[in-house]
Amino acid sequence: MGILDGKVGLVMGVANDRSIAWAMSDALYAEGAELAFTHLPGQSSERRVRRLTDPRGAKLVMPCDVQRDEDIGRVFGAVGEMYSRLDFLIHSVAFAPPHELRNPYVDMSRKGWHLAMDISAYSLVAAARAARPLMTRGGAIVTISYYGGEKVIPGYNVMGVCKAALEHSVRYLAGDLGPEGIRVNCISAGPMRTLSSAGIAEFDTMHDHFARKAPLRRNVEFGELGGAGVYLLSEQSDGITGETLHVDCGFSIVGL
Ligand code: NAD
Q1: What pLDDT is attached to residue 30?
Q2: What is the distance in A from the centroid of ligand 1 to the CA of 16?
Q3: pTM over 0.70
Q4: Is residue 3 part of a domain?
Q5: In total, how many domains does the chain have?
Q6: Is 172 a catalytic residue?
Q7: Which CATH number characterizes residue 17's domain?
Q8: Residue 96 CB less than 6 A away from ligand 1
Q9: Is residue 160 within 8 Å of 152, Cβ to Cβ?
């Protein structure tokens, strides 16, 4: 018996087996959840994701570019047709043009800023709106942020601004959807080696610094993000919404 037996979730943001979304999926499967997945459009993305999801028997695996409302509509329409409802949603999606991430924030172009904000922050709003009519028995939504949304972290640049917007969107969405029993929360994860983090110029410095300074004197492990995901998506956290939970070995409490 798992604490998510009979629950249906949609996971947006698995790129490969190092994705935070996959770490969470692993933990959710272990608790009995039924999961549907989206991946970036394209054969190689689909192949990489299906290699993980097919052995788990995932019935719904669909392409979705979060910049396209029609893709989002198609995915949530298919979830509705297959399951008639949705209990939870994981949003684990972000992107900024790599060359712009490497430049100082002051040099950010208007076009790059809009693109990063659209994919990394607005997409949560669009996905929550599409999930809402399917969350007929209430529901839970979780997105993933980073400490660079609260403080200036060298090299994180526009993504930090996107994360600030994402974390505050979590609060406003929690305010809007709370009366319908839909909870919206955020996990602020410590630095993890993933496809996305490879685009952050100062990532190695960030990673080493975390392990030295965090009270637990190490970096976060993927399974720990999975555990936090299970908590925030299950009834165990029924009284919690609009929250950003730091899963960062305590790094964010340290002042110096
Ligand atoms: P990842 O590369 O595995 O995941 C990022 C996902 O975003 C990929 O699946 C990618 O396909 C998806 N994506 C990008 N553009 C998209 C678009 N237009 N439409 C749909 N999907 C799109 O890397 P990750 O580190 O697992 O990142 C997941 C989330 O965790 C991101 O929001 C990231 O900012 C956040 N995060 C990462 C770290 C870290 O150190 N890796 C730390 C804190 C927060």
Answers
A1: 98
A2: 10
A3: yes
A4: no
A5: 1
A6: no
A7: 3.40.50.720
A8: no
A9: yes
